[in-house]
Amino acid sequence: xxxxxxxxxxxxxxxxxxxxRRFSTAWAMRDWRHxxxxxVMAEMRRGKxxxxxxxxxxxxxxxxxxxxxxHTFEGSRFMHQAGRNSASRTTQFIARLTQGAEVxxxxxxxxxxxxxxxxxxxxxxxxxVLTSALLxxxxxxxxxxx
Length: 146
Hints:
Number of helices: 3
Largest sheet: 5 strands, antiparallel
Order of helices and strands: HEEEHEEH
Helix content: 40-55%
Oligomer: single chain
Shape: flat
Strand order of the largest sheet: 3-2-1-4-5
Distance between the termini: 10 Å
Strand content: 25-35%
């Protein structure tokens, strides 16, 4: 029984670290600035990965331009790499776009070249951090008392 609790505590520790890093990234993105961008390209391109039956899979390709001050930038990231299901969310987003459409762009205030269309939400990560921390504390207390 102690081994199962110890394994649970290790898993809770890794979950805590994972969600804490995600929360940290999402929390920092709260201060990112917002501007309107314009879609340069939004399409599905045949990729190099294959499905289990040997068919080539398609990859979402998104490119947008946006202006910050006097500088124009071009971005290609839908969301930060810490986000879950980024490719499927990008695919759903691209399906609704046309070339030239306006999109919201969120950029790092100190590095405007770093931008995304969909910022990370910190609330979900905060709940996950607190849940995994609570679970870790409970399992550690059980181990201590055992």
